[in-house]
Fold each of these.
Amino acid sequence: MIRIIIADDHPIVRIGQKVVIEASGKCKVVGEADGPDELLALVDRVPCDVIVTDFAMPGNQQADGYGLLGLLNRKYPNLPVIVVTMFANIATLRAAFGHGARGVIAKSASARELPQALNTVVQGRTFVSECLRLQLDQACVAEPTQAPTLSGKEQEVVRMLASGMTVSQIAARVNRSISTISKQKSTAMHRLCISTDVDLFAYARDTGMVP
């Protein structure tokens, strides 16, 4: 019997995941958490074989998904973690794998793909949601598991954009030209394999750049 701990701040999501996970009779949910703090405490005291966790949950100690993944990877390097996220884009995929995740599933497809992902990661392999595999093929990304990196100025621009500032306002604030700020925004989106402002803002939220 494969022991699973699930974490999501929405109870209805956890209920659905538990039903899907236990349907085959091969897996059992041995613990549930509603946030990163409760998840960390639960893993410390309840033995499990796989963690299935939401990517962005409110918490005091680990406010962003990457911080949570990194901590789990350092404390339990042999424990597979599957990330379930509503922000299914290449940036999230690459960063999640770069911080130790073994699987990434789009929330829209979680019920269909979760059993397959569990079987895959317990065998020591990685799992990528179908919609993300299609994005990878279209973007021709050679190393999907390498975490994206931004320069300090690019991070600054992304953070201010996500906080609600316009390109013109940022240029005035940091004393750079509008064209420079626009270029830094475009370069950041290219590095992250992100094509829309919505995904850029989601990335900024997930990485803890903005609340």
Amino acid sequence: MRPIVIGIIAAFFFAFTFVLNRSMELSGGSWIWSASLRYIFMIPFLFLIVVCRGNLKQLLIEMKRNPQSWFLWSFVGFGLFYAPISFAAASGPGWLIAGTWQVTIISGSLLAPLFFETKQTPNGLIKVRGRIPFIGLSMSLIILLGVAVMQLEQASQLSTKMLLLGILPVILASFAYPLGNRKMMEVCGDRLDAYQRVLGMTIASLPFWLLLSLFGVITVGPPSTGQTIQSLLVALFSGVIATVLFFKATDLVRGDMQRLGAVEATQSFEVLFAVAGELIILSAPVPSYVSWMGIILVIAGMVLHSYVSNREKPLKMAAVRYKSS
């Protein structure tokens, strides 16, 4: 249960992304600065943490060992994740972005065949290609059904163009984030902790953010003071606290695709936290009864997903012990 709890706490801090990005959009800020400033501001926070823990040298050695992988998967996991999310925030309300982002629950499960997981056999531990966890995936569909119900009334009021611009970039991000995260876990192994890995990926993705910032200066001009402050808050809450917590949770279930899918499913709580945040910060209207039905489905699906994922592993291990006896 510990990885699940950490994942839910991470979801709380991730929700600041959707609420504050929407706030910046409503005040006239550009998605370009919402995206690039977050990762630029993350570096000082993470650098200070890693230095104080005495782990900077080890991180630099790891990055020097395989720089191509660091640059590639950091661009995928951070660049192709947050730039589309920020762009989508400029095209639709925060609830739509947070709701659509839950596609990552299924996206992460569908990526399982691209990776290897550790299995217990009578001959010891072996690595086998991951399989799509269909039982856990069925629980994820319950979560997505709840999200769909939550957004049913509002989505009917949006134009097709707004739906496409608000949904397609988020779907791209939903595959990029777990793919980049898992690939970097493979590259790093057990040699780096979550703080080191997030700092390394942020540094490796920095060229992309600097290029995006240059594009922003040319096309929309410098960011306002208000957007700069809110981007700083997103960097701290979502970029540092939430990302480190989420990476820590995924590290705890490394090599187990079933439980990894359960941890990634905790991000469904972002919808609940985003709704609360918009009510408090943006004075958004209270969700209808239909939306609350969706919220209940999300919670139920999350509980079932966690239960199935944590129950299936002991059953598999018991079967292995039975066969070997």
Amino acid sequence: MRIIKLDEQSKKNILSDLLKRSPNNYDSYQASVDEILANVKANGDKAVFEYTAKFDGATLTADTLRVTEEEIAKAYDEIEDKELVTIIRKAIANIKDHHEKQLKQSWFSSREDGVMLGQKITPLERVGVYVPGGKAAYPSSLLMNVVPAKVAGVDEIVMVTPPGKDGKINPTTLVAAKEAGVDTILKVGGAQAVAALAYGTESIKKVDKIVGPGNIFVALAKKAVYGHVGIDSIAGPSEVMVIADETANPRYVAADLLSQAEHDELASCILVTTSKELAEAVSKEVDGFVEILSRKEIIEKSLENFGYILLVDTMDEAVDVANEIASEHLEIVTKDPFLTMTKIRNAGAIFLGEYSSEPLGDYFAGPNHVLPTNGTAKFFSPLNVDDFMKKSSIIYYSKEALEPVSSDVIKFANAEGLTAHANSIKVRFEDK
């Protein structure tokens, strides 16, 4: 990996390079996505089935669109490593336990003058969860999107995922969906699935919100339908930053950097360190790992484009660059990681110490792995229970409470030229 002495110019160049990875820069795909959305909105099932045949090579009908209980039962039999089902259940328990701590209750407060104010918290009624499919299976992503929705109390969870050419869904995906509590599984993916969830078709009911990762067509489709439905976020390529000092194990650090580089040629992995010796040792370890890892070509491209080892003079400088880049995953491997953590303002998820490797968060620990990318950790949070709930304000005034403030409200409304607003207060006391 390249080793760079960090200064203002190099920081500016790196930030510029990283921002090129944003989905907002992929407008060349937007016309194709818009065409799919419009077609599905106008033609419903017919368009969905045609796109599924075109892009996935699978023939669907209204009768074969939904995964049956028989297909799910068969999926359990098809999983060769039965221990995987047990591991999925353990992961669900950890994710559920973490997200249950996020639950909030409706609240009300009252005053002696006859005013009652509050907030009513209501789960969303119907949520669509997009799960990438085809040859790959991502049960961890499925769990991270479904379990918080279940904890929130969503009435109906509809999962969409692209089928293989044989019209089947990966058995691991089906088992994970069943274990997590998905209500309906549909064999459809791509922008056409997003459109169907957003607008509804003859066979697919419109949802209130769409969550879950996908390719650039899925990301742009979610962005386009926002407003018709809610969405979680527009996810960009994966990224990890490691802050480390001379106490860090270079082999561990190198392994953690590469755990993200293997995701995608656009993935970013950055080490920020105060130790030149560690920087050189990590670079050497990275070279060794790359030669033996299965996704060598992807890793090499990722490192070439967005891999950096940044040398800084002080830990405060390391914290400053971490807060500026606002990485999706931030590992802190220093003498006192908890102290360093207190200075971090912007990060999606923070991993403390040499045994808190990022993949632990991806699969098992419990906190959500759906995280803000491309610097959006400056203003976005990880997916959480609140994403599956909505809040309504509660306002109650008795006549005795309204009367002493009525003139204030009337004056405020008149100041804005909204006489009908003022009148709606005035008529309640016109007999005075």
